Predict the structure.
Amino acid sequence: MKWHFKLPLVLVLWCLWAPFAKCATAEFLFGPPAFGSGASNGPTFSFIDYQMNFTTQAGTEFVVSYLPGILIGHRFSYAQFYLSLGGGLIVSASNVALGANSAFGYRSGTGPGFHFISEYRHAAGVGNKRRYFANKVIRIGLQYEF
């Protein structure tokens, strides 16, 4: 079974875990794997990549996806817009390294329940042989606010 078929199962397990971990929001986003340097869409890559975000009441954000990787940061919100800054394990088609990431997003509403969410995320790192690489992703999806 390919990895992208297992991700919905992981999403269900994480959504069951999220309320117990004091998460304020749980998000499931999807979109193209990545565009930009170091993130070519090779033959073994799916044309859709999934991303799961969890944010606590304090604004700490946890992001898990194939591209750009496993990230942690802080989310600054203003009304329906947010900015996220952080770092983590950045993954590209040819490199894996520690790096920084930032995101800008919009959600359709505030308060408990489901909301539409769209996001632009940029992650950059320095991989093997000190080569710089960057992943840029645009994702859309659903957010559930507890």
About this structure: The first helix runs from residue 3 to 17.
